[in-house]
Design a protein that fits this description.
The protein has four helices and seven strands; from the N terminus they run E-H-E-E-E-H-E-H-E-E-H. By secondary structure, the protein is α/β, with parallel strands linked by helices. The strands form two sheets. Strands 2-1-3-5-7 form a five-stranded parallel sheet. It has a two-stranded antiparallel sheet with strand order 4-6. The chain is globular.
Length: about 150
Amino acid sequence: MKLTDSFKRALWVFHVNTGSCNGCDIEIVAALTPRYDLERFGIKLVGTPRHADVLLVTGPVVHKMKDKLKRIYDQTPDPKEVVVVGNCGATGGVFYESYNLDGPVSEIIPVDVYVPGCPPRPEAIIYGVAKAWMKIEGLQKGMKKNNKQGGSEK
């Protein structure tokens, strides 16, 4: 599947800030403005992880957010993808030696797509979410194929 191919349905995204400086969050908001118009691709932000297909995580994980991030991940229905936006969520960034960090996101929950940058451009964020979308579409095709062959859904 190419990025230019159409998708079968809309993608719902839940944004989680686990301790960022808000630079990445501002770029996510910029991706929603008319200039980039994330929603024209069918990508919409939702207010609860229970409705989400993708978790969009910004920032390194601080102590107070560790358990909350795990709970949010568990509340998100399968198949789900986790997209880490920015260097801080991937490596700890400039905060990597902070006493208050429990580590990058990948040490707390599994990560599927990284969007590097400090902060990344809205185009990169849109591309990262689209890559996660393609993974979900592939997972759903695999599930349907397994079910047709008598397999079970994972």
